């Protein structure tokens, strides 16, 4: 059975601003190729490809050119920006469900349900829906193997655990619909293990995860220009004494709490750009990227789209050249970070799970933070080991757009 939890559900039913006539004019379905979904009215030189000065006159804005309900859906802000071609349907994702650890149990499914040939499609859509809504799911009885992690990652990125017969007939034994997506390769490899001895040669172990100390709540790969979309953590070997529990926190719920309690601090963490860094001299890596702690929809500042938070990898903030009161700027940044930390440490906010062997948490890395309590190993040969991988955020968001647009075409939402 898949457990239900108490959520604070966010609705996008509130009035959204009207779409400008210039936008409607350029979005007119007549101006887009129905096969490629690219603009069909851009005039270029047939030989050189240079854009011609003379371009065709666009038709006037016409709401009647769009299917019923389409423009209303486009107006609504979502955690994922989505503008499907009108011929494909309407994007209607499930509502976001904000949670705190004291009232949340991760939606759960067995690994074999996702791998089942007949039920895998429906089960995969269920998993994608839960990940969009809550940002955290639990897959039980997951094989602690590289193949198991690759198969699970392909389920949520659009690939296949085994080649479909149709793909083989067309000469693509490892692809279907052009996709054999799976783990997202990083400096730790494609599929990694927190046991140092289990890492492939040449991959990095320069991270506090390869230790027994506790880890503060964080999102991963903040030092990537675009951090991975999902993390898959499969407990291969729990600590024999039960120590080393995993911790999770809904960053969207925390951000909403911060905005309600301290709008100025929220605004600071939305605008200030922080740098993040990872360096491994042994394997020759130096990764560095920057971004705000909190990201919002580009068309609606009230809609959150991402959280980037890692105290251990964060570089000192630098004020923009336009700032005149540098001391005041640093004081406000420190105050905002302290207010954010206070929200993260509120009683009942974090979820603590003692994972059993084969328990794999699937985590939306742009929303849900994770951490770990310390653990101890007493006897010789004892180990606490997690095998895991990442998936790309663009693949994840693509799957969400396809999944929820298709569902809406059938009348669901």
Can you describe this structure?
The strands form 5 sheets. A 6-stranded mixed β-sheet has the order 3-4-14-7-16-5. A 4-stranded antiparallel β-sheet has the order 6-15-8-13. With 413 residues, the protein is α+β, with helices and mostly antiparallel strands. Helices cover 26% and strands 19% of the residues. Residues 1-5, 160-179 and 407-413 have low confidence and may be disordered. Helix 4 packs across helix 10 and helix 7 crosses helix 9 (326-344).
List the helices and strands and how they pair.
Layout: E1 8-10, H1 21-27, H2 70-75, E2 96-98, E3 108-110, H3 111-115, H4 120-134, E4 136-140, H5 146-157, H6 165-169, E5 191-193, E6 215-218, E7 230-237, E8 246-250, H7 251-261, H8 263-271, E9 274-280, E10 285-291, E11 294-297, E12 300-307, H9 326-344, E13 351-353, E14 360-364, E15 368-372, E16 385-391, H10 393-409
Parallel strand pairs: 3-4
Antiparallel strand pairs: 1-2, 4-14, 5-16, 6-15, 7-14, 7-16, 8-13, 8-15, 9-10, 11-12
Helix pairs in contact: 4-10, 7-8, 7-9, 8-9
